[in-house]
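Recall from the previous lesson that a structure prediction takes nothing but the amino acid sequence as input. Here we apply that procedure to Phytanoyl-CoA dioxygenase family protein from SAR92 clade bacterium. The sequence below is the only information supplied.
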Amino acid sequence: MKAIYLNIMQSAMPKYQLEKLKKKFEEDGFVVLKNYLDSDQLDDLRNRAINLSSRLMKDQESKDKYHHVLKSLNRQDSWFDDELKNGSHVEILEALLGFKPNGVSAAWFDRPIGDDIGIEPHKDAYGSDKSEKVGATIWISLDKASRDNGCLSYLRGSHKKVYPDIIPIPGIEKNSEHAVFVELNPGDAVVHSSSIVHWSEGNQSLMPRRAVSYFYFGAKI
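The prediction returns the following tokens.
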């Protein structure tokens, strides 16, 4: 099943658009923002992310199977810290969640050409404080993300169900009628609940699949 895309720029959105997004987010557990970044914003984010990730990966002493994922960029670069706390997406997340979330981490996600290791079904809220409301993640695509190079996949509506805090979550049917493959163009973004089940496959294409995400926990209950 394919995702429904909403054409929304990063600039301030009218109330009716935010209400439409919120309804979709509450129903499905995720919402896609087409053309979220303009070309200049995309170039700036891509250049900053590539430069920082290249430096950090060069300094890595050991490499596990997920070494192409770098979390806590906000602790390494003040620009990413400011975006995590004050980026224009924070207002969108607040509208979707109904409260201002707590920024936790800015992250780099790379799925290089030939990397056949995906990420199995999981939820971002794994191991989180149960006294917190559900948070959210915004995932901004720097390249074209397709089924061939490991786009994100969601189990639509799974944020409404309870799953064990296990990675991978057992018993998830990746080809279920509720599975949605979210294919994105550079500059598109997807916002998802930290409780939704999602995954991605390996990169079987000749194109890279890079992204930057900002992860947020919910407010204290």
